[in-house]
Design brief:
Blueprint: E1 2-7, H1 13-22, E2 27-29, E3 38-42, E4 47-50, H2 52-58, E5 64-67, E6 78-83, H3 86-95, H4 100-111, H5 114-122, E7 128-132, H6 138-150, H7 164-168
Parallel strand pairs: 1-5, 1-6, 2-5, 6-7
Antiparallel strand pairs: 3-4
Helix pairs in contact: 1-6, 3-4
This protein binds adenosine-5'-diphosphate and magnesium ion.
Length: 170
């Protein structure tokens, strides 16, 4: 079974994937597989342009976890969408050294549920689990994810509303 762990940058994918790995689970870092599919740089957005369709089509499915903000584009059996309240996400991304515009772009995408919406375009709700890493620490998030993979934690999505960030700049 392939479980995708997706989410806006800064929501905790790599941290939680590291915990799963240390517990002996098989984890693929999607970002390490996009190399051949990089078309170029997008200097305005300070990011790489990836041929996402070609990457997803070429990806060999794994029995384990796939971590990355494009993981929900893969033919996963289940998908975990990590979330973070946008103002907290801003703090995490500033600490990572992201430039102001990139911080704002990612926080707005998080407030607009962009990755959740993309995920639900492809996956039925009963295959999706959202976790709020604003309140759930990494170890507990890892517990929820292994429980979801095992079928003991039920699917859940659509519980977070961070539109206030857009309205009030919170
Ligand atoms: N569940 C969590 N609770 C609090 N802070 C977290 C949590 N998960 C990650 N973080 C912190 O958020 C930052 C970004 O985490 P990271 O795992 O690199 O995110 P991503 O891989 O999604 O970009 C790090 O500073 C990390 O320590
Ligand atoms: Mg990461």
């Amino acid at each position: 079974m392939m479980i995708g762990i997706t989410g806006t940058p800064g929501t905790g994918k790599s941290t939680i994937a590291g915990i799963l790995e240390s517990r002996g689970h098989m984890v693929v870092r999607a970002g390490e597989t996009v190399g051949p599919f990089v078309l170029g740089d997008d200097p305005a957005r300070d990011t790489k342009i990836v041929d996402e369709e070609a990457w997803a089509a070429a990806f060999t499915p794994v029995d384990g976890f796939v971590e990355g903000h494009l993981a929900h584009l893969l033919p996963c059996d289940r998908v975990v969408v990590l979330r973070c309240r946008p103002d907290v996400l801003e703090t995490r991304l500033v600490a990572r050294g992201y430039a102001g515009a990139k911080v704002r772009e990612n926080a707005e995408a998080e407030a607009l549920d962009v990755i959740l919406v993309e995920t639900l375009e492809t996956f039925e709700r009963d295959r999706v689990l959202e976790i709020d890493t604003t309140t759930v620490p990494p170890n507990e998030a890892a517990d929820l994810i292994t429980g979801f993979a095992a079928g003991t934690v039920p699917p859940s999505s659509g519980s977070f509303d961070w539109s206030a960030y857009l309205l009030e700049g919170l």
